[in-house]
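Record type: ASSEMBLY
Status: queued
Input:
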Amino acid sequence: MTEAAAYDALAGEWRRRQTRRQAALALATAAIIAAFAYAGALDVSRYADALPTIAQLAKESVPPDFSRWREWGRPLLETLATGIAGTALGAFLALPLASLAARNAGAPVWLNEAVRFVLSAVRSLPGLIWGVIFVAAVGFGPLPGVLALGVHSTGMLGKLFFEALEHVEPGPGAALRAQGASRLGVFRFALLPQALPRLTDALIYRLEHNLRAATTLGIVGAGGFGLEIVTAFHLFEYREASALILVLLGLITTVNFFGATLRRIMLRGH
Amino acid sequence: MSMLHLVPTSSFPPAAAAPALSVDDLCVARGGRSILRNVSTSFAAGAVTVVVGPSGAGKTTLLNVLNGLVEPTSGDVFATELGPLHGAESWAALRAHTATIFQDHALIGRLSAYENVLLAFAESRHPLSLLPWPRFAREAAAKALEEVGLLDRAFERVENFSGGERQRIGIARALSRAPRLLLGDEPFSSLDPPLARRLGDDLRTLAVRKGVTLVLVLHQIALARALADRIVALNDGRVVFDGPVETFDDAAEQMVFTPPPSNRKGC
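Status: finished
Output:
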């Protein structure tokens, strides 16, 4: 076969694939433009007052007013506790569910699919709506926040966990099966140790996310630091609001720093 | 160095009672392609059977039928003590005394060499137990690492080891189980020839003295000749030679590595 003849053998399929790729790209572009248009983002007049208003808000927010700092400790701790407890609850529920959802952990396919459906249903309700539900169920305070974050995190972490489990090398698990280990044994001794860095990664990411989410949950009555920020805004205390936001930024940066350190330790040697 | 004392003599029945294994009319098909076709052969206790053949001949699949990882499409596996292996219970009984050395080592890279060898004792520890590995397992694993010359690096992560060193860790894991059926899929492929020869001789001595049923897949024919009591050759999923190593002459070798005629009948 000459070079040209060899190419001719591929040319038809090559063109088909090329056309398919271009069509997909065009479709995605059209969808994105439509989304912006529908949201009003292409309407220039909407932006006329935006910059001056933001500038005014910024001007009224400086210098930050830290004078009430003594009263912030408790709500800050509440938010921290809500985030940590909510993440722990989510992880505790997510790991066994993920072991049932992962294709390579021994559960039958119908069970994989059933658990995946439950996880996706649980996470399709945003944390805020779970917050409203649990405030109604157990009253105000950090507890409904913990439950809301726990349930929503179960859905999210369950998905991240089962994907992490499915990423492991099959060899070590096969080695354990070949020597007669049970499904639970294969999960515990081959899948879990291999997936641990990814699981930790997902967990840290979720903890960061939940600390922010714990703040917004304050708005629906789940206490904590978010309530302070919203109250300050409602009272037009922009200087205090900016101080609160700086404190929140500090908290989240600290947590991110610890998260990055933990991640580095987990992935040591990679 | 010798690996003999890895196997406590007391726990071993006389060689005659050790499980010899046989397969009868074994067929394995995957995705419409036949991998093993009507394979019948047997594996004696206290002897070394070496499986040879070109790549893709089905050698690894045959080994994985013997440890139960691959379920045959048809045909039977027999163990002398257990009869035909049907159902989870009889397989579990065989697997409890089986160890496999995998071609890709099947180790967990981020765990230490020691932790990897300890996985040989996974059944002696409940998966949900928070207790550490039992003492006897820790001792046997340490001894096995010493035998392959890696005791001083026991706590290093496996991903920092070379291919040959990983292979030795895989061998240590298999031997620490004191198996009565030892399967090796290219167990020496990443080792220097002298070390391959030495570990091969050690495995051979282990098989002969302790009545272990040893089945090795090897691609180095010279090593196969040196270690084997019996050669089973596969080509395109079929047994094309099965006999004592003395009868495996150059003509037989040539036949094994000749491409098979296509469209042959069988499963």
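Annotation: The beta strands of chain B are 21-30, 33-43, 48-52, 74-79, 83-84, 98-101, 181-185, 213-217, 230-235, 238-244.
Annotation: Chain B is about 30% helix and 25% strand.
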